[in-house]
Specification:
- This protein has 17 helices and 6 strands.
- The chain has about 400 residues and is mainly alpha-helical.
- The strands form 2 sheets. A 3-stranded mixed β-sheet has the order 1-5-4.
- α2 runs antiparallel to α8 and α9 crosses α10.
- The protein is elongated, with a radius of gyration of 26 Å.
- It binds iron/sulfur cluster (SF4).
- Iron/sulfur cluster binds next to α9 and α12.
- The site of iron/sulfur cluster has 14 residues, from α9 and α12.
């Protein structure tokens, strides 16, 4: 009985949303106006960037990407390092590596033209169910239904789905697909995205402005704002480590390229101990210091939260001579010295920018003090005190 009631409303809900979208669509740099299709390259690029990231953070980077690599062939020809550097700050760097791999696949296997169906799009690197449906609907007009977090929230409220996420996902998907009209699937998907982003917001939804309020069961039952319910997540563990900021006399900083796969893969990092739940002991710290030097602890620590864990890094800093030799444990083949001027354009993830800012800002007074005595500085750079010994001494004090 309930389903037949909803079935009667589905066409009206889609119609109301499309009419509202025609009036209120957000003007975004990757959007085509309502009733028109967008270049799949632009849809793909924006959808990959927007995963787990805000429109505000994505907009300048999207514009920059498009300026540097105006089409998929141009992006395919780019060096991965350049792409990672342009991506820096958006997080989830596996997306940037997949973006590059996908561009190369489209250029090589599809003559630079994205395939036009959800099924074919799913075969490309980094394109999951949501992105494939979004590109198929928005760029190709296929009857496809992307469902992201915003759309999940709207559907859960519209149909008063009380099953908590993630168990509710299949039901939400079925409901969303049933609402998708035969024509203008792309506009419909974008109207749902906009409704979730601007009116049916996580907190205090503006139901008074909502074009589908008459059909909304969550609103009618007075439970809209609480939906969707979510299963409690396990608490994130905290991992700890020590990061080593080595500055050479010529003003360069030691950085290292991370392994291509895994967390922050292919990005630059400040060398550090492994990140473990227990704090590293003196032996571990000594084994991972990239050079033997007079390491100074920088007061305070750097904190950063990843999807699956929280990170706390202590920072050690050292001034080293130009001819300093890297320790074998530092993986010298992956290390390089960058000038301060090169840092803004480098493929440095946010956590490493925080480490460098912490080392430079907190260490500024020490540096100015040490400049007053070049003899003391030379002495410091010649005195090779292992960080293990220093830390062990400090902890036992
Ligand atoms: Fe969301 Fe309120 Fe609209 Fe329902 S009426 S879809 S809860 S904004």
């Amino acid at each position: 009985m309930q389903d037949s009631h909803i079935a009667m409303e589905e066409g009206a809900i889609a119609e109301a949303l499309l009419a509202w979208y025609g009036r209120e669509a957000r003007a975004l740099p990757w959007r085509a106006p309502p009733k028109s299709r967008q270049d799949p390259y632009k849809v793909w690029l924006s959808e990959i960037m927007l995963q787990q990231t805000t429109v505000k953070a994505v907009t300048p980077r999207y514009i920059n990407f498009l300026r540097r690599w105006p089409d998929v062939n141009a992006l395919a020809r780019a060096e991965l390092g350049e792409v990672l550097a342009a991506w820096a700050g958006l997080g989830y760097y596996a997306r940037a590596r997949n973006l590059h791999a996908c561009a190369q696949r489209v250029a090589k296997d599809h003559d630079g033209a994205f395939p036009g169906t959800e099924t074919e799009l799913r075969k490309l690197p980094g394109i999951g169910a949501y992105t494939a449906a979004a590109i198929a609907a928005i760029a190709f007009g296929e009857h496809a239904t992307p469902v992201d977090g915003n759309i999940e929230r709207v559907i859960a409220r519209l149909f008063a789905i009380e099953t908590p996420l993630p168990a509710a996902k299949p039901e939400i998907k079925v409901r969303a697909e049933a609402l998708t009209p035969d024509t203008r699937a792309g506009d419909f998907a974008q109207s749902m995205m906009d409704l979730g982003a601007t009116i049916c917001t996580p907190r205090r939804p503006a139901c008074g402005l909502c074009p589908v309020r008459p059909a909304c069961r969550g609103y009618a039952q007075g439970i809209a704002e609480q939906l969707p319910y979510k299963e409690e997540k396990a608490a994130r563990p905290t991992r700890r480590g020590v990061a080593f900021v080595a500055m050479r006399e010529d003003g360069t900083v030691l950085l290292r390229t991370r392994p291509p796969k895994g967390l922050l893969g292919g990005m630059l990092e400040v060398p550090s101990t492994p990140w473990e739940e227990t704090s590293p002991n003196g032996e571990i710290i000594a084994a991972h210091a990239p050079v033997d030097a007079a390491w100074q602890d920088v007061s305070g620590r750097v904190e950063h939260t990843f999807t699956h864990f929280h990170l706390e890094l202590c920072v050690a800093r050292a001034a080293v001579p130009e001819d300093v030799v890297l320790n074998d444990g530092a993986n010298p083949a992956q290390c390089r010295w960058l000038t301060l001027r090169e840092l803004p354009g480098a493929a440095l993830p946010t956590v490493m920018r925080k480490v460098l800012a912490h080392a430079f800002e907190t260490g500024a007074s020490r540096s100015s003090r040490s400049r007053k005595s070049s003899r003391a500085k030379r002495r410091a750079s010649k005195t090779r005190v292992s960080p293990a010994r220093r830390t062990a001494n400090r902890r036992s004090a």
